Amino acid sequence: MTPTIFKPINWEYYGIYKRYQKVTLEDMTVLDENKEAFDVIKEYAEHVVHKLDAGLGLIIKGPVGTGKTTAAVAIMKEAIQNKQSPYFISMISLLDKLMSFRDQEERYEFEQRIKNCALLVLDDLGGEYIGKDKEESFMLKRIMSIIAERNQRSKSTIITTNLKIKELKERYDERVIDRLGSTNQIITLSGPSLRKEEWREL
What we know:
alpha/beta; 8 helices; 5 strands
């Protein structure tokens, strides 16, 4: 009998880079005040195929360092293990990528991917710089259009953000945020930052 050969997963293809390639829900530090929210995240991950089939997503909000990105990536990894095709990108990278394309075919292929992937994770919505530059403003409207189109196609989107829902509505297209509210469960993580960083004077 020929042994089964398992190919290693190319995490970067899905937008998951080295820092997050080993994260799992089981390894996450969960503060007491976040246990209820974490239960919702875990339930979503355990039933990820059903959630994606139904076009359901999450909005994970809270202060910096509370585990929003880690939770989103852990869900993505469950989707990948279940032969789904998610894609992760930060808002800063998405805006930069859309503004840097010079080849229209490459832009089209990229936009088709983020429109049609089984699960799109938009990390740190609100963390991108919104200036008065006309091209940047146009790109942000384009991103909102893509989110709206995914919603209309019942494509699942997970959004992480440091902003409150009211702030998202003020900063972006209120109609798009309202539509997401009908399909995306809102989860709030709270507490101090879980990141362990040392600052040293140079």
